Amino acid sequence: MSTQTQTPNPALLGKKAVKYGFGIVVSIWMLFPIFWMATTGFKRNESIMNLPPDWLLFDVTLVHYRDLFTEFGFHQFLFNSFLVATGAVLISVVIGVPAAYSLSRMDVPREQDISFWILSTRMIPPLAVLVPLFIFFTTVGLTDSLLGLMITHFLITLPMIIWIVKGFIDELPQSLEESAMVDGCNRIQAFREVVVPLVMPGIAAAAFIGFIFSWNNFLLALVLTGGGTRTAPLVIQSSMGYLSIDWGMLGAAGTLTILPPVVLSLLIKDHLVEGMTMGAVKE
């Protein structure tokens, strides 16, 4: 009995080679700036501007990281960013998830108008509302405070979380909640015990996106904070002067600033993957 060996299809192999080759090129293109920034933070000032650049072989130094924490107190600004982003996202999730459920399941008067109004708040350029916000927060005494900045970031993240979570709730069959209410649950209990656990991956994905938007926000923090209430992006900007740029400090501050979102994404990666693929396959 002879066994036949399957001959590889040259066309199929060629398609795979092109696909993986294109993926590798795109990955390098996207990751190279991050690699350059990270290595710049470990280089000495005299070797940063070398031509050709020292990609891998260079004298490693931690002087830029030391200066960040000893001279600039960068840990305080990282904490400010984390506190503002976390607080804004938590408040947005607590308010946004029930709001998304109401828009998805309940007979809300003029639901389409309300949904469009919520979405339209994301269309407004931040500069258009910056002056009114500054006047308002100055009047109530919330300028140069983390609470005021948290409120503005909450206004940014809430519409986005409502819309993302609403899309996930729309994918759930209403029969699940109806079955729970037949078994004795009221509407709130069905929402808490049935809907929330099922859309938790979507909530995690929406919260993570909101965290990124809040963490990277620069303009609102520039106008509404100062001194000890500044956030990490403002410290990155302070390394760029009128006549020169401290490239080592810029690389070190940029590297430390992207670490918390990266660590957070790794911690909730299972929920993120499940949330991004939720509803992709329909029975």
From TrEMBL:
How this chain sits in the membrane, per its record, is:
Multi-pass membrane protein
Q: Which residues form the ABC transmembrane type-1 domain?
A: 78-268
Query: Keywords in UniProt for this one?
Result: Cell membrane, Membrane, Transmembrane, Transmembrane helix, Transport
Q: Matching InterPro entries, A to Z?
A: BP-dep_ABC_trans_perm, MetI-like, MetI-like_sf
Determine the domain of life of the protein's source. Answer: Archaea
| A Pfam family hit | BPD_transp_1
Q: What is its main location?
A: membrane
Among Gene3D superfamilies, the record links this protein to: MetI-like
Gene Ontology cellular-component terms listed: plasma membrane
Q: What residues form the membrane-spanning segments?
A: 20-39, 77-104, 116-140, 146-165, 194-215, 247-268
PANTHER family xref list: INNER MEMBRANE ABC TRANSPORTER PERMEASE PROTEIN YCJP (PTHR32243:SF18), MALTOSE TRANSPORT SYSTEM PERMEASE-RELATED (PTHR32243)
Query: What name does this protein carry?
Result: ABC transmembrane type-1 domain-containing protein
The UniProt entry, under SUPFAM superfamilies, shows: MetI-like
Q: Look up and give the organism this protein is from.
A: Salinigranum rubrum
**Which family does this protein fall into?**
Belongs to the binding-protein-dependent transport system permease family.
User: Could you give a single Gene Ontology term from the biological process aspect?
Assistant: transmembrane transport
| Location(s), subcellular | Cell membrane
